[in-house]
Write the structure tokens for this entry.
Amino acid sequence: MSQPSESQRNNPSRSHTASEKFPDEATWQPTTDLLKTSFDALASLRLTVALLGMGVFIVLAGTLGQVDRDVWDVIHDYFRMDLSEDYNVLFSFSLFDRLYHIPKPVTWIDLKILFPKSFFEGQKVPKELLSDMFAPARLISSLVLGLLMSSMVWLIPMRDKKRQWGIFAACTVTLALLCAKKGGFWFPKGWTIGALMAVNLLAAHLIRFKVQAKGTRLWAGFGVIALGVLVTMAVISSGSNKADSNMKLLEISGTPSGGTYKLTVDYPFGDSFSDEFAYDATSADIENKLRQHEGLENLEVTTKEGDPPNVIHQFVFDKDAEEIPNLNVDITQLTGGTPAKS
């Protein structure tokens, strides 16, 4: 057995071994296992299939939601996250304001949209179909949705399958009861699902795919990718339909006899302006009133010929503007007639 050297006897602190100074691999093993498990879950093919299924469902919900709602309202509520909030609130001293203005990644889906009027051959949808928590249609649809949403439990890698089945059953019952009680459920928006798909794809590439090219071939590949990105951006920014995209139509159908309608010019990533107009407002009246708002100084409103007695107002926005707004119409104060937009 070797004896301590003279320097070690004079300096006892140096006699510690390297294993005493630095933790061995076993110390870091739990953290390594946790990271590996997390990346494996993010790159899982099961997650890919689940996200694809969720994407199909949100498209179905958005399609059915257009039965009683405007297409742009459905797109805003079911697919997009509102990034146009006033970012000055981020510097506010009110924590409530900061939390309230955080873009919401989920949307509320009502069970009623799953039973559109077309299912009943032109008849009225029975009120008792979904009005009561214990209505058969409401219970069955809630149970099916609870099963589908609880299936996400199987994305979690667990060795104890009995415990996993127990968690799955508990989640199914809880979600089904909540769905039946509230008459709807929260579901990820389209942008949320798309972001998760991107994370899933990146994680899969990081774990399963290895870069084999080196040197010139590697940099040539990066160059081709960069060129493709630039070409794609150029095509999008100079789309062939840009000339027509700055035009919107507002049609007054029927024969309105009085009242007013509220017209909102809504920028997807900016402000919105609302004005009320009389039922018989002319294109010049609409144009003069809207031109008072910032960004609408070059707005042109003209009247097109429509099928009598319909009146069509054509809105032509500044084609050089960074974004073209949408038109939203509120007809609650209008007597007779039905405004529609496109």
In short: The two ends are 91 Å apart (CA to CA). The chain is about 45% helix and 15% strand.
